[in-house]
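Researcher: Here's a chain I'd like modeled. Treat it as a single chain, no partners, no ligands.
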Amino acid sequence: MKNEDLVIGLIVMLAAFMCIAVGYDVGRHESKSEMIVLKAELEDAKAQIKLLEENQVIVYYADNWGGRE
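Model: Modeled as a single isolated chain. Structure tokens:
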């Protein structure tokens, strides 16, 4: 009887450990997927900023609009 209880206890502990390990692995995989998406969005944003900086135009306005001083 005592050996059966020990075996059942070990099986329960192993099952609990496996559930925790699987949950951790799934969470880690989802985190990696989210990181990949965020890195791609960051690269897109950097490319857009670079394009905007390259195409920046400074507009100068005259002090007066052709009028007399």
